[in-house]
Amino acid sequence: MNYRQIEAFHAVMITESMTLAGKMLYISQPAVSRLIIELEDEIGFKLFERKKNKLFPSAEGRLLFEEVEKSFIGLNELSKTADSIKMLQKGHLRLISMPGVSNLLLPKIMELYWKENPDINVEIESRPREVVLDWIHSKQFDFGITNLPIDNNEIQVEWSIDLNLICVLPTNHPLAKKDLLEIKDLDGQDLILFPSETYIRHEIENYLKKQGLKYRIKLETRSTADIYQFVKHGAGISFVFPFDQHLDESMPGLLFKSIHSDFRATLALLRSKQKKPSLDGQNFVKIFNKYYNS
Question: What class does CATH assign to 92-162+267-293?
Answer without folding.
Answer: alpha beta
